[in-house]
Amino acid sequence: xxxxxxxxxxxxxxxxxxxxxxxxxxxxxxxxxxxxxxxxxxxxxxxxxxxxxxxxxxxxxxxxxxxxxxxxxxxxxxxxxxxxxxxxxxxxxxxxxxxxxxxxxxxxxxxxxxxxxxxxxxxxxxxxxxxxxxxxxxxxxxxxxxxxxxxxxxxxxxxxxxxxxxxxxxxxxxxxxxxxxxxxxxxxxxxxxxxxxxxxxxxxxxxxxxxxxxxxxxxxxxxxxxxxxxxxxxxxxxxxxxxxxxxxxxxxxxxxxxxxxxxxxxxxxxxxxxxxxxxxxxxxxxxxxxxxxxxxxxxxxxxxxxxxxxxxxxxxxxxxxxxxxxxxxxxxxxxxxxxxxxxxxxxxxxxxxxxxxxxxxxxxxxxxxxxxxxxxxxxxxxxxxxxxxxxx
Length: 392
Description:
By secondary structure, this protein is an alpha/beta fold.
């Protein structure tokens, strides 16, 4: 049972008699696939007064990075306040008259996916304006035990890295909210505001940390235009960073987003050979082709996870960066535009990695960095247990 299912099974007790706002998107549905918007609109004794939309909008159709304006929802007549437009943080005016803000967002377990940032900024605004935050929890599709990649340097915290956690963080969105409310320094608010802030998490029933999305028995509702399936969730974790700068692209035509990759000027055979030489545990690489928009076939390599337990979700991306330096005539991380370089550094979160890439990316000791991050992840895993809502 998802958080919204539990809320409904309890007669909406947590929000009865309250005037509420709802921060959600198309993947915010109950286990029958009914939108949380509709569930709360018909909830007895509850007044749904406003909708709030994250990146990609309330209906999830806007492309990544596109700013959206406030509008009125044609279907419900409710105002939609954009939290990916003029502001990333709800304003006092947006929250005026609300007793609580309900948050029902489906995260994918990866730090740079901005729904967790929307959560953090919304919590800050609500705590500052004495509005209760109610998080309806949802599964981490990658499960609650997979962790990978660097954490975020303090000076690189941003909207694509709002929490100082590893790139694959192993928490549900409710657990992240719990950490933000309990741990000093996560929210950018005075300590007195944080400690007086009101947070309620409606946990799931029946979810365990070992469960991947297919284990939940729930249909996967696309969370954004390029995340249409669980396969894309897995791909985002392992190729998203590696395809940011350097020449690698993900998706072959419109097929295999984040799972099929290619490199301009290199054949699928060349790419397959290099990828297999990495000897990454739990992965296999096969050549595939798919139709392109011009009708011609495009070829590349499909990345298959063959052993989930052995799979290290972020390792491939960092090997791709080194390979991009090897295959490019000049170091692409030195020649990247200022805007791209800034975004990349925020996405990865590690200045040490960035400096090493620029210094000699073709010879960077990838395994030394990965080993260090794995050791740090062991410490992180122990620290975050205090925020766990679900057993192993």
